[in-house]
Design goal:
CATH class of the largest domain: Alpha Beta
CATH superfamily of the largest domain: Alanine racemase
Largest sheet: 9 strands, mixed
Mean pLDDT: 89
């Protein structure tokens, strides 16, 4: 991996015609350091957020020694890159061959479940292994998350009691986990969930629990989503721990994904064409910008020109189209850039370390995995020097609190609704 002082050096030296991922090593180190120094327990990185080898090894060398894995390929990746790392199979629904392979071939002993059927699978496929750590995934409110995850996984509190009793008999250690939803904006969500866990445990005085796993949901920072400082999440979790019966007897886990890696990567894209307030760029929703197109995320952006053109023009909102022939390859934004942006300009798009690399495809022949290292800080941060935040957050015109997703029409603007992609994009959204 080649190294540069920053994206502007890359552009001026090479004028790339393909999207380039910029890896901000220091940002990854800062995020890992925060969790290792502040979370009162074990931190497991959720590999799904970004399985790039430089991310996995970077986190391991920065002190994250345990990984939340959800598939055999993720297990194989971590074992190959970090043989000494601990792994926990935290997907609540696994195939029988995957359970067998994880247990017998890779020595994994920690398995999540959320139903009697999944518990039976784990016990059966490990030949009744008495060295199992069985972790019940509990359904909890996702009220304060931007991307709720409730519905697919999680046992109800009513069913949890019987499942915990059964798992206690089947395994060596017992745990409870939950997920408050991705990009959780209010720390209180963790306190509420832990209070729910505490109530369940109080009803099971003869079923000791060894592990409480608060899952993921820790947020990153975006122009329209500026969460409280992570220190407030720590305090909310500690208040929740205090609600548990005999918390001193429990081991505490967390499973951050987005919060650990979002700041670690940005992507340099090139403007191929401008039509009014629409920019056609060479990356899109089939590439690293899936969340911008399908989830309505507004990422921090800055214009970079190959030569110094003097002071920047005032900002105005733009929308993006990606390079493919599909109209769903559309990012509504708004993305605020100088009003004189033109063909041939470059744009750095930040906060793409989470779910950027992961969601890339080769659709329509457009794909780029080229990555360089940069010393420059990320465009915005929750960990390092926040001086850049003022440039890319406060300078951005005020955005509405509620983001408009691609399948939603703004309530008060017929004109905006008419700008949304039609045809296949509408069918996909439905």
């Amino acid at each position: 991996m080649d190294d540069y002082n920053g994206p502007i050096d890359l552009i001026r030296q090479h004028r790339p015609d393909i999207p380039i991922t910029c890896f901000h090593r220091a940002a990854l180190d800062n995020a890992a350091r925060w969790f290792t120094e502040n979370f009162p327990g074990k931190t497991l990185y959720a590999v799904k957020a970004n399985p790039a080898p430089y991310i996995v090894t970077g986190l391991f060398h920065s002190g994250i020694r345990n990984f939340d894995v959800a598939s055999i390929p993720e297990i194989q990746l971590v074992r190959e890159l970090c043989p000494e790392a601990g792994m926990s199979f935290m997907h609540p629904v696994k195939s029988r061959p995957a359970i067998e392979q994880a247990y017998f071939d890779y020595g994994i002993r920690e398995f999540a479940f959320d139903s009697a059927e999944e518990l039976e699978k784990i016990v059966s496929c490990t030949s009744g292994g008495k060295d199992l750590t069985l972790i019940l995934r509990l359904a909890v409110p996702n009220t304060y998350s931007e991307l709720p995850l409730a519905g697919k996984f999680g046992a109800s509190p009513e069913k949890a009691i019987g499942l915990l009793k059964a798992a206690r008999k089947a395994g060596q250690r017992l745990g409870v986990s939950f997920h408050v939803g991705s990009q959780t904006m209010k720390p209180q969500a963790y306190t509420t969930a832990l209070q729910l866990v505490g109530g369940i445990l109080q009803s099971l005085p003869r079923t000791p629990v060894d592990i409480i796993d608060v899952g993921g949901g820790f947020p990153s920072i975006y122009p329209d989503m500026i969460p409280p400082p992570l220190a407030e999440y720590k305090l909310a979790i500690e208040r929740g721990f205090a609600c548990l019966p005999q918390p001193q007897s429990c081991e505490f886990w967390c499973e951050p994904g987005r919060a650990l890696v979002a700041e670690s990567c940005s992507v340099i894209v090139k403007v191929e064409l401008r039509k009014g307030d629409v920019l056609y760029i060479n990356d899109g929703t089939y590439g690293s910008l899936f969340d911008a197109g399908q989830m309505g995320f507004r990422f921090p952006v800055r214009l970079i020109r190959s030569a110094d053109d003097g002071p920047g023009a005032p900002l105005k909102p733009f929308r993006f189209y990606g390079p493919t022939c599909d109209s769903i390859d559309y990012m509504t934004g708004p993305f605020f850039l100088p009003k004189d942006v033109k063909e041939g300009d470059y744009i750095e798009i930040g906060q793409l370390g989470a779910y950027g690399n992961t969601m890339r495809t080769g659709f329509n022949g457009f794909s780029s995995t080229e990555t360089v290292g940069v010393l420059a800080p990320p465009l915005v941060t929750m960990y390092g020097d926040p001086s850049n935040n003022a440039l890319h957050l406060k300078k951005t015109p005020q955005l509405p609190n509620k983001r408009t997703l691609p399948h939603e029409k703004p309530e008060d603007s017929k004109a905006q609704a008419e700008k949304q992609p039609q045809g296949r994009a509408a069918e996909h959204a439905g």
